[in-house]
Amino acid sequence: MSVLDNWKQWEDFLADRLHQAQDEGVNKDVVSDLAYQIGDYLANQVEPKNEQERILADLWSVADKDEQQAIANMMVKLVQNNGTR
């Protein structure tokens, strides 16, 4: 099963990667840029596997670049207190 199949698993996966990056000293701007790049890739290359991913893909598709960056930043905030840490 892919982490993309289940929303909670996806959140935990992202949270674990975020915590790992923070522990290694990756700064907030780099995290924000990576979140944007991942969001753009997923929206353009990966078929949504659940309702939450479909909503994010739909929002991403109608957003301009600044709004997409805001969505990416909100995802970072959403997962920052999650994960297995």
Automatic annotation (TrEMBL):
<dbReference type="InterPro" id="IPR024702">
    <property type="entry name" value="Uncharacterised_YmfJ"/>
</dbReference>
<dbReference type="Pfam" id="PF11588">
    <property type="entry name" value="DUF3243"/>
</dbReference>
<protein>
    <submittedName>
        <fullName>DUF3243 domain-containing protein</fullName>
    </submittedName>
</protein>
<dbReference type="InterPro" id="IPR038292">
    <property type="entry name" value="YmfJ/YflH_sf"/>
</dbReference>
<dbReference type="InterPro" id="IPR021637">
    <property type="entry name" value="DUF3243"/>
</dbReference>
